[in-house]
């Protein structure tokens, strides 16, 4: 049935990311959806321990407060959220990538 397939594909977390699915649907259909579990298993085995290298256009660029290095200012943030700095000892134009390994995705 095409309608059921459309619903399953829409609410498996790929077409619409989990965080943006309406709470009503997220609370039950996401977890009952067999596509969710199939895709999760495939992504988990494919991305496990995969080292991520961001392309230049994928970095978030920011400036730390005066007198601080990128690593000193963003260290706690990266410890909590993950990712890596391309230039941790710089004092301006810090390049942050949100993923360091595939498991963080």
What features would you highlight for this structure?
105 residues, mainly alpha, three-stranded antiparallel beta sheet, 3 strands, 41% helix
Account of the protein in words:
The longest helix is centred in the middle third of the chain and has 14 residues, at 34-47. Helices cover 41% and strands 9% of the residues. The radius of gyration is 18 Å and the shape is elongated. The two termini are 32 Å apart. The chain contains five helices and three strands; from the N terminus they run ααααβαββ. It has a three-stranded antiparallel sheet, with helices on one face. With 105 residues, it is mainly alpha-helical.
Protein topology:
Elements (H helix, E strand, L loop, with lengths): L1 H9 L12 H4 L2 H4 L1 H14 L12 E3 L7 H12 L2 E2 L8 E4 L8
General form: elongated
* Strand fraction: 5-15%
How far apart are the first and last residues' alpha carbons, in Å? Answer: 32 Å
Order of helices and strands: HHHHEHEE
Task: Describe the oligomeric state of these chains in a short phrase.
Answer: single chain
Structural class, from helix and strand content? Answer: mainly alpha
Instruction: Identify low-pLDDT runs.
Output: none
Number of helices: 5
* Rg result: 18 Å
Q: What proportion of the residues is helical, as a percent range? A: 40-55%
Number of strands: 3
Mean pLDDT, to the nearest integer, reads: 91
Instruction: Please give the order of strands in the largest beta sheet.
Output: 1-3-2
Short description:
The protein has 105 residues and is mainly alpha-helical. Helix content is 41%, strand content 9%.
